[in-house]
Amino acid sequence: CTLMDLGTLSSGRKIMGVRLNNGSPEGKPKFLYSSTIHGDETTGWILMLRLIDELCTSTDPRIINLIDNLDIFIFPNTNPDGTYYRGNNSVTGARRYNANGADMNRNYPDPHGSAHPDGKPYQSETQWLMQLAMDYPFVMAANYHGGSEVVNYPWDNTHTLHADDDWWQYVSREYADLAQSVNSNYMNDLDNGITNGAQWYMIGGGRQDYMNGYRQCREVTIECSTTKKPQGSQLPNFWDYNHNSMLTYMEQCLNGVHGFVYDAATGQPIEGVTITVQGHDDEYSIVSSHEVGDFHRPIKGGTYTFVFSKEGYLSQTIEVTVADGQRFE
Q1: By the 8 A CB rule, do 197 and 205 touch?
Q2: What is the pLDDT of residues 283-316, one digit of tens each?
Q3: Distance (Å, whole) CA 25 – CA 62
C-alpha cells in the first residue's frame, strides 16, 4: 500500500489516495475508485476509507485475489476544499463546489461537447486527476456521488449509446441487485437502481464521459445515498449495502478478454497496439496495449473478432468466445 499525494491546494489541503497491489503490478489491469468530487456528498468518501482498511488488513481469499491480480487506486475525497468549506473540524458546512466555486463534475474536457464545457479553466483538482489517468491506464473505475441511489452508466452528454451498452447494463444491474439483496429498499431509483446518464439528465464536462471518451477507461458514476451527508451512525449501513457490490465490480475488471502483444521477430512486448472488436467498436470503445504489451478488454459475453493493429506491423485477427463473469486469455 503506497500513499499517493497528487498535490497541495492553496488552502493547504491535499488530494491524496493509495495504490494497493502485491508488489508486482506489471501487466495487471489498473482499477480506480474515487469519491466526493462534490464536497457535500460524503458517503462514498467513508466507503473508500473503509475499503482501503479492508484491502490492507483482510486475509479473506476474495480480498487476496483482488490484491494479487489488480493494481488498485483509491482516492476517497477529491474535493476537500468543498467538504471542509467552513473549516477543518466539521463537514456541517460542506458544499458541492471547490474553493473557486467550480463544479468539478462539469470541469472536464467532454468528448461530446467542448474542451471547457463550463467556461472555466481546469481546476487544480481536475488537472491532477487527469494527470493521474494519463500516468496510469485504468481499465475500469467508479466515481461515488450522493443525492440519489442509482448506478449511472455512460454516456452523460449524448443519447447515442455506448458501444458496450449491453455490458454497462449488465455490470450496473449486478451492482444494484447485489445491494438490494441486502436491503430491498436501497438503490431502487429510476430503472430499479440503474440508468443511462443522458436518459436521466444530460450534463457536459463530467468525469465519467472524460474517462470513457479520452482515457479508454470504463468508468461509472455510483450515487450511493439519497441524503448527501447522512449521520455517522448510518454509515455502517451503507457499507453493508455496498460492500459486496464494490468487490464484485472490482472483480469484473478481471473478466473479459486479456492478453499480451509481442513482436513476432524479437519477442519483445509492443505498447500502443490498437485492439478493435470488429463490427462492434467505435472510437470510444477501442483499447490499446500498455507498457509491457498487456491489454484488457471488459466486454459482454459472446463471440467476437479481435483485430490487433499498429503502424509498421501486419494486423492480426483472433476469434474469442467469453462468457459473462469469465475471463479469456
Answers
A1: no
A2: 999 999 999 999 999 999 999 999 999 999 999 9
A3: 18
Residue with cell 466486454: 299
Rg, Å, the chain Cα set: 19
The model carries a pTM of 0.98
Q: Give backbone dihedrals phi and psi of 66, rounded to 5 degrees, phi first.
A: -65, -45
223 among known catalytic residues? yes
Q: Under 8 Å CB-to-CB from 47, ≥6 apart: which residues?
A: 35, 144, 224, 238, 239, 242, 246
The predicted model gives 179-197 an average pLDDT of: 97
Packing angle, helices 43-57 and 235-252, rounded to 10: 60
Give, for 219, the enclosing helix (H) or strand (E): strand 218-225
| Among 281, 287, 290, 285, CA closest to 260 | 290
As given in the structure block, the three cell numbers for residue 37 are 468530487
Q: Per-residue pLDDT tens for 69-116?
A: 999 999 999 999 999 999 999 999 999 999 999 999 999 999 999 999
SS3 278: coil
Distance between CA 164 and CA 169 in Å, rounded? 9
What is the structure's pLDDT at 35? 98
pLDDT of residue 312: 95
26, 125, 223, 291: which is the annotated catalytic residue? 223
Torsions phi, psi of 105, nearest 5? -90, 20
